[in-house]
Every structure is written in structure tokens, then in C-alpha cells.
Specification:
mainly alpha
Amino acid sequence: MAELSDDDLKKKARTHTAILYGAGLVLGAALGFIGNSAFVETMDFIALVFTRLFKFIAIPVIALALITTLAKLGKGSNSGAIFGHAVFYTLLTTILAASIGLTLFLILSPANVPPEVSGAAELPNGTVPNESYMQHFISVIPDNFVAPFASGNVLSILIVAALFGLALTVMPEGDHKSTVLNFLKGIQDIFFILIHWLILALPIGILAFTAQLVHGILTQQALGSLVTYFTVVVGSNLIQMFIVLPLLLVIRGLNPLKVARGMFPALMVALFSKSSAGTLPVTMASAEDNLGVDKRVSRFVLPVCTTINMNGCAAFILVTSLYLMQNAGMDLSVPTMLVWILIATLAAVGNAGVPMGCFFLTLSLMASLDVPVRLMGIILPVYAVIDMIETCLNVWSDSSVCAIVNNDLKGKLPPVEPEEQAD
């Protein structure tokens, strides 16, 4: 019997993985539909364990990936090329996402919620943030080294890691620099081993997340007055996910199906974890192992994109802000709505990739503009589904940008040094 080649073995492994993921989805949906209290409690426990594990791995991976990659990029003359390409495609996709949201908002024109309904809806205690949007932005500037890591503030961690990486870039070559870099790369390798272990157990997590989702949908009361609003938000995300980003990949010479197939584990984790930052370890491993992305690209682009590339969040912020202002009786002229494309883009860039991050950011933004936010209490029950879809879109956009940047810079980066090939 002929031995299978490495490519055949990888294809076989991906097929087995897809079967396990599918089985997890089906079995999880069945358990969620049954709704047995013991099943529900068990699935909630498993989902919580996986969520905590992803968060545990994500924070150090974000910092280590950015520090080591910046330090490596400093050795070549094209160190700014990756960052420039990543920012360009991030802004392009985010602006497109917000524009699609505005287009659907104008076409479908969601009606206002009846005053007696919106007036009766109050947000849960502690939901309304006490800080303005500017205060939210200032809060990402770290005032000590430990606080960003303890609080899980991704943008603050990105700032700290970037500063350390840039400092290592300009640090004179010598034993001290080599020692620091070798130590950081060793810790990074350990975390990537943990990531691969976690991916092996992922079908169990998918089963739990799916059961949790189905049970939540079945016990959720329908809100007919928000159907059109919900359609605009979800529809704009789906158009971006299945039409805009695949077209962009095709234009840049890539096969969208191949990219999606390679990134499937990350997309599944994003869908159920509702955290693009928590999904980052799986996103990086999928890009490198399944798509063959240059590690210098993946370990720089993906941590950056996880923080600033928020396609789903941009659409949600734009549509929800316009909907709240419309319900408040504010004038929505064409110039005003066009300006909100820019506002939504900038706000999304400043959002942290954590569950319900866009919801709280929109609340903060509206509160700072003195727009009544009580309607957010009605949106809150359906936001769980919105959050899942937009997080999946965010990770799909991160993956697309990473694949495009890798393709654009293929053969243009400095040669990989022997010690980097072993990373």
C-alpha cells in the first residue's frame, strides 16, 4: 500500500477535523433543543472553560507576537511594508462595511419603535457607561505596566507591545538583545504548543457553544418591532462576509474558498466565543498551518487587525447610532449620514475585540452626544446573535487582510534567517 504524501495527510486531517466540527454542531444543536437542565448546565460549564482558556492564551500571544515580529522586521529595509499594507486594507474593508450598513439602512428604512415600548425599556443596572467616548479612548493609554494585562485591555497591550518591539528594533546588537529575544521567542513557542492542544479539543467546545446558542434562541422572546433593524445589521454583515471580502480576495489573486477552508477553525471559534481577541491564537495557527502565511506577516498583521479591523462593529455602530438618533427625532440628512461612515470607522478601530465591545462602545458614543439610549435595552436581547455574526465577520476580515498582505508581499520581504525558520 502506497504511503500518503504530506499534502494527502494534511487533506485527510482537515477532512477529519471538518467531520468532528460538523458532529459538534449537530449534537450541540440537538442538546440545546432538548433543553434538559443538566445538559444546559454541563454545556454552560464547558463553554465557560473554553472561553477562559482562549482568554488566558490570547493576551500573552498578542503581546509576544507583536514584540518579536517588530524586532525581526527591524532587521530589513521593508519593515514598514507589512504595517502599511495591513492598515490600508483594514481601513478599506471597514469603510466598505460601514457604507454597506448605511445603504441597507436607507433601502429598508427601519421604522421607529413605538414610544410606549421604547419608554418602558430600561437597560440593566450598570449597563450604561459613565464615561464619554473621549474618556473611553483615553482609558486605553496605559499608566502602568501591569494594568493593561490584568484588565485584558487589548488596545493598551498593543501599545505596550509596540513600544517594546520598537525599542528592541533600535537596541544595539549584542548578548543582551539576543537573550531577551530568545527568551520571548521561547515563551511564544510554548504558547503555540498550548494553542495546538486547544485546537485538538475544539470539537468539544463547538458542541457546548452550539448547545448554549440554540437553548438561548429558543428561550428568547421575539421582538417584532426590531425585525427590520435586525435585518439591516445582520444583512450588512452577511453581504460583507459573503460578497465584499471574497471579491476583494479574488481581485488580489486569491481563492476565497481556499482561504475560508483554511481559516474555518478560527471562524468557528469566533462565531461562538464572540471575541476576536480570544480567537487570535486559533486565527494565527490556522493562517500559518493551513494557508502557509509567512510568520512575519501573520504574527504582525493578525494582532494589529484583531484590535483595529472591526468590519462588523463598524456596521453595527453606524446602523444603531442612526436608528437611535432617528427614534430620538434627530435630523438625518445625507451629509450627516455620510459623516457617520467616518465616525463609525474610527470608533470601530478604537474598539476592543471582546464580547459586547461594540454594544458598550455605541452606548458610550450615543451618551456623549446626549442621544437617549433607552432603546438599547430593547436591542440588548437580540444582540447576542448580532455579536456572534459580527465577531465571525471581524475574524474573517482579519484573515482576508492577512492573506492579501502575505500575497502582496510574497518575495518582497528580506530572506528569512535560519533561526526564524525554526520558530
